[in-house]
């Protein structure tokens, strides 16, 4: 554990100053964005502590361990996605970090501080899975109310514009659609210029336009130094957004890394070709055995160079529809097309699909329903 | 840079106004806190629907303090229990606890919000009662004020206890049923002495009976009975303790 719970004297004042430095440009117009490159400045105070450190966290309900020795670190200025099936312990973990639940054992450091530290309430933004919005309040009225809780909130109108809240500004929360509620809840999480934001399934129930607007805003804030920890079971959300993915199941971390690291063929860490699936269409009954032969010969020479042995498999799914899986290089495609050309076969399409995060996720967590 | 305590007050004040606004804007809440007590006051004082033995005093002089006590209960107990229960179910309590407002500011805002709504009630009920001929003893105002604060604390604590333990739907039922039961048989509007015997003794020990008797005593120049004050203090302490032990934020 790189962080302990020692509170640096004066850290709060220091961070307050940092916040106004860093986040002044936050959620403002795009003018500054292009020229704004600096990350959180290194300083004598704890600005260098990771955004979140969870170490050997355990939480049980009625004797059942929902979180069971879970550990991960979320870096500063990055988006960390905690990915897992329903009931994997994601929300419980996040709620322990938000000080809404108390862990049975293990340690948590939020921006280098214990989660109960009152100063964190100024520095951390929270979006709960159930929204946390009273039903009788009008959308923007709620946002203004939460803004009143912070000393230097983001101008309400800016967030209203960026998250497209105008169209339902005066509608009561009761009458909002699921996606509109989510956008409002996200706005309330961001209104206080947080350094770290916890988002529990942020884009659940949103239409594609809203999701992309939300992802863009989150990425922009990340580029300006804000750290995010979000839970999701949406693969494309994690794939699009996350700098760092933590896959959780049965209360434990079962894999973590960047998306490329995770989708890279399992076990190959030497920078060799990623396992991909090739799909192509052409005439029926092409001799796949010959193709595999040629690929193998090609690979043998590659083995000499890289020392790694590759395995390829191929099949004809439907007449004229083929699929092959293996470590794909540009040369493999060259062999494929020349093999087809030698038989006078015109391939009507070739597609290369890398393993998706979803493939990795299902491999790791299994396919049974929860 | 303002001091932390000034900031806390600023946030709690914002929460107070927010809570009061939410109550006064909600149709059902407006019904139970404003329209119901006023209708009861007008109905009972201008008709003989319910026979109240006034022991020689003007009927409105017996009724008005009781209506004020009942109005206080609708806000501090029924309305607050329902509002808090649904806030709890919707995660509002948890969300606000993560903002700088925190649990302490949220609780302060809720209690102050109850007092704010009660001030609106008093501003509406007292003039109507005066028009209907109420002639309160002005010496009793200080005593009545103390009882008002103590009673509000006891009933708000009861509201929090119910809202923090039961499901929102159950709170909806319990908050209304308990209000109805206390108004009919709890010594709020009809003086405790007029209740049938087992109820009479019971009502004296209920916060509702204590409130009703104390406010009638204050405004009828008889003075606030010490016994009622003790009862209200005991309920406030017990319920407050219960809230700190049993209230669940989610």
Structure in words:
The complex is a heterodimer of chains A (370) and B (250). With 370 residues, chain A is α/β, with parallel strands linked by helices. Chain A is built from 13 helices and 13 strands. Chain A has two domains: 253 residues, P-loop containing nucleotide triphosphate hydrolases (Rossmann fold, 3-Layer(aba) Sandwich), CATH 3.40.50.300; 80 residues, 2-Layer Sandwich (Alpha-Beta Plaits), CATH 3.30.70. Chain A has a six-stranded mixed sheet with strand order 5-6-7-3-8-9, with helices on both faces. In chain A, strands 11-12-10-13 form a four-stranded antiparallel sheet, with helices on one face. In chain A, α5 runs parallel beside α7 and α11 packs antiparallel against α12. The two termini of chain A are 32 Å apart. In chain B, α1 crosses α5. Chain B has one domain. Chain B is globular, with a radius of gyration of 18 Å. The interface between A and B is medium-sized, with 26 and 24 residues.
Index terms:
heterodimer; A: 370 residues; alpha/beta; Rossmann fold; Alpha-Beta Plaits; six-stranded mixed beta sheet; four-stranded antiparallel beta sheet; 13 strands; 23% strand; elongated; disordered N terminus; B: 250 residues; mainly alpha; globular
